[in-house]
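Training component of the fellowship. As part of building independent skills, the fellow (R.M.) carried out the full modelling exercise for a liganded target. The chosen ligand was iron/sulfur cluster. The inputs are recorded below so that the supervisory panel can assess the work.
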Amino acid sequence: MKKVIVIGGGAAGMQAALRLRARGVEPLVVERETETGGKLRGWHVLFPSFTPAGELLSELRRRVRESGIEVLTGATVTAIAPRRVTLSDGRCLACDAVVLATGFTLFDARIKEEYGYGIYDNVVTSADLERMFAQGRVAKADGTAPRRIAFLHCVGSRDEKVCQQHCSRVCCITGVKQAMELRRMFPAADVFNFYMDMRMFGPGYEELYREAQQRCNIHFVRGRISEASPTIDGRLQIKAEDTLTGRPLRMSVDMLVLLVGMRANDDNAALAASAGLARSASGFMAPRDLFLGRVSAPVEGIFYAGTVTAPKTLGETLDEATAAADAAAEYLKA
Ligand code: SF4
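Fellow's submitted model of the complex:
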């Protein structure tokens, strides 16, 4: 039986491995962490349906387990070739093709010092907030409930100053979803979303955005927060400009949530160099063709699944993982 090494044991990697198995190919999943799941492990509920992320993760893991797919955890890949994968401990794993499903990295909000992440209390990222939701408790640093919360969109995305010019695609809808969850948790709280554009492109997104405004009374302000600073009474003062009215705006809030974007993994550069692969300006892997070869690398026998090539939603990621596995299976038949 032909063997394909799937690098990355997140949603894309698990889905690609399942599809390969269904196509009569033997997959081996290589995951650097001690368990599979990737970013799904830290997520509470998924947009736009509020489906618990744990349900999807458990189902993918169950299918992988019951399919008898081999998973090698705690293994870091340092180099790839169409028929060989090298690990950091020096081992070389032979195969007939490779599916790269290493995903993305969340933008480090500390780089945008003006927002005070890691410096001031009660400045959190969307990933931090998701963990708080998962733990069932959202609170300020002093343990009390926030009464006024601001979300800031596009942190580490669409920003030339931090070399991240791309749109991360999922943070607008994440901001809407999280704002609604906060209003459910704290019905008396005021919630503001500061955005540049609302990019509601997916199925059900526009409806959720409308519900957030009309039923949940969440305030959407077109404008960018320029800085946050602590106040004497333990709150945060934010400065912004409402770009619809042209007016500067100052507001005190109890919590500032930074909607951090997706950026390319740091190890893309080394993996690309090892196999002669190209990367886009943002550092994501460049596919063979944007229309007819989206899941194929320019090098024969290497395939891409999920956000290793660009920011994507989870649904798109799973679809693409299926397509990458199909492309690998067809390649092995030829
Ligand atoms: S999805 Fe929205 S918040 Fe995210 S980068 Fe694009 S415009 Fe900004």
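The panel noted the following from the submitted structure. The CA atoms of residues 85 and 91 lie 8 Å apart. The pocket of iron/sulfur cluster is lined by residues 153-154, 157-158, 167-169, 171-172, 196-197, 199, 259, 261 (CB under 6 Å).
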